[in-house]
Amino acid sequence: MMIIIISYSEVDLDLADEHGLLVVSESPCVGLSFADAPAIVQQRQAQATRALAELLARDCCRTCVVAWSVCNEPGGPQSVPTAEAKRQQTEALLELVALARAEGTRLVTFANIPEHCDEANRACDFLSLNEYVGWYYDVGKPLAEIGRQLEAKFVALHADFRKPIMVSECGADTLPGCHMMAPGLWSEEFQAGLLEVYTELERKLPFVFGVHVWNLADFRTPQMHLRAAGLNHKGVFTRLREPKLAAHMLRRAWRP
Asked: Where does the Glycoside hydrolase family 2 catalytic domain start and stop, copy by copy (predicted)?
């Protein structure tokens, strides 16, 4: 399965059509904060609706597209500081889901953070979860413990929502050539071991039907402390497309 998140060039869809890859086509809407002034919130929602409508019109005749993702990470508690803001966010998400469902031929989802799943997820056909345990939180936790934590979380979510689960993002930044005897942050061993946890859960849990690794290759970002040398290093390949350990692990795990 090929997942396109945050809409890319139509060239990617041409390749997917040609080679028989399945695509979850996602709106470029990232974040739906309701912590701003009402006029800004209204403008943002109108933009999200327009972007999704444009995506549906662009990709509706693509044979490779099997599902729509109406947004990516609509936001956690900081985006909905009040009960009213939370209600507005859920209502806005339901409107986007309804717009995608009106297309009538594909499944509908949106990429969420597991801890922020709410009623809007119940309107979707499957849960898409962006999960970064061991990197953005619970830093330094042993890989075996991360595996147990993820399994418990996925089992609980499935029991609550009764829907299949796809891991729509997962990974950890990794400096090419950084190696450690015991897997530690930034090392190729940690990235490979962490991603192996997800592939093992995919095999173990029948309701987890896919894992999308973020990202294929390292890419440029604004400078910040989490972005060594101004790059997002979550790629399993370097910017020059040289494989890290994780690329070899994934090849073994996913080889037919």
From this structure: 12-255
CA gap 155, 93 in Å, rounded: 24
Which one of 26, 73, 188, 189 is the catalytic residue?
73
Find how far residue 150's CA is from the centre of its chain: 15
Q: 111-149, pLDDT tens digit by residue?
A: 998 888 788 999 999 999 999 999 999 998 999 999 999
Task: With a cut of 90, say whether residue 26 has pLDDT above it.
Answer: yes
Q: Is 169 a catalytic residue?
A: yes
Domains of the chain: 2-254 (3.20.20.80)
pTM beyond 0.90, yes or no? yes
Buried b (16+ CB within 10 A) or exposed e, 156-192: ebbeeeebbbbbbbbbbbbbbebeeeebebebbbbbb
> CB-based contacts of 240: which residues, under 8 Å, 6+ apart?
none
Q: Check if the beta carbon of residue 222 is closer than 8 Å to that of residue 230.
A: yes
The answer to whether 10 is a known catalytic residue is no
For 177-202, how does the pLDDT look when each residue is reduced to its tens digit (9 = 90+)? 999 999 999 999 999 999 999 999 99
The residue annotated as part of the active site, out of 131, 169, 189, 202, is 169
